[in-house]
Design brief:
It is globular and about 60 Å long. It is built from ten helices and no strands. By secondary structure, it is an all-alpha fold. It is found in: Membrane.
Length: about 300
């Protein structure tokens, strides 16, 4: 029995170290992107304004989930209070919606920059960009409040044990309710479908139109580079929407855990690489900043 406990503790310690590293890299990558965009004047453009907000959302989401999960990896008694559970649920709903809407806005930006270049300055002004992000945050807040309020106003009957790493709207939380959750499940699904379908439509139309325009005006090498960039972005979109609309079968708790951990820890770490650090402008700005501000002359 003692040997089993030692082995279990060792496994938890390894997981703690692995996820602490991932979380640290996520914070470093996203904070670096926000700082670099603020420091380097060449990056004061709409697309990098959207990217800085995307990085802020990744930091917020992972910071709500990761610290408590890391503590529970090593804790003898793994508990989360009701207020923490509601907070995690709220920010999970807020950040997932925020990322979906920001990705749609970024796709629309690329469409304007490529297909409507003569109207670009007027359409994507600083004021319009701020309004788009503000509208996204306002909608996300309302959506998250409605979802959290409708879920946690139901009656709990115990046992108050969640078979998961954190609180979101997966079956482990729904199993704790005595009330009928059919109406709540339907409302949550409809809200998810509305956001997902609208953003997918904007993304697909924007990217298809942009790629058609690129094929007409660019060389084969330029087209390949553009397609490579779009493919990496669409992979990120696909991961987000797979997480957003995945089936919630009661028999898939272990599967849901893996998907949730991947999205909560790994995606925030990869986003700076996918969206920014593969970009020549960002790499040049990073080299310039390191040379001017870090390396002594």
């Amino acid at each position: 029995m003692l040997q089993y406990k030692n082995l279990e503790y060792m496994v938890h310690a390894i997981l703690f170290g692995m996820f602490l590293f991932i979380y640290t890299m996520s914070l470093v990558g996203n904070l670096s992107m926000i700082s670099l965009i603020r420091i380097e004047t060449r990056l004061h453009t709409p697309i990098y304004f959207f990217l800085s907000n995307l990085s802020f959302g990744d930091i917020t989401y992972s910071s709500v989930i990761a610290p408590k999960a890391l503590v529970n990896f090593l804790a003898e008694r793994k508990v989360i209070c009701f207020a923490e559970c509601v907070t995690q649920f709220f920010f999970q709903a807020f950040c997932v919606n925020s990322e979906a809407l920001l990705l749609a806005v970024m796709a629309y930006y690329r469409f304007i920059a490529i297909c409507k270049s003569l109207m670009y300055t007027r359409i994507m002004s600083r004021k319009v960009c701020v309004q788009l992000v503000a509208a996204s945050y306002i909608y996300d807040s309302i959506n998250a409040i409605v979802r959290a309020g409708s879920l946690f106003s139901l009656s709990f009957c115990g046992p108050n044990i969640i078979d998961h790493f954190f609180c979101d709207d997966l079956p482990p939380i729904q199993k704790l309710f005595c009330s009928d959750t059919h109406m709540g499940d339907t409302m949550h699904f409809l809200l998810a479908v509305i956001v997902a379908l609208s953003t997918i439509l904007v993304i697909l139309v924007s990217y298809v139109s942009s790629m058609v325009a690129i094929l007409r005006i660019q060389s084969n090498q330029g087209s390949r580079k553009a397609f490579s960039t779009y493919a990496s972005h669409l992979m990120a979109y696909g991961t987000l929407f797979f997480m957003y609309l995945r089936p919630t079968s009661s028999n898939s708790s272990e599967y849901d855990k893996v998907v949730a951990i991947f999205y909560s820890f790994v995606i925030p770490m990869l986003n700076p690489l996918i969206y920014s650090l593969r970009n020549k402008e960002v790499k040049d700005a990073l080299r310039k900043t390191i040379y001017q501000k870090i390396i002594p002359h």
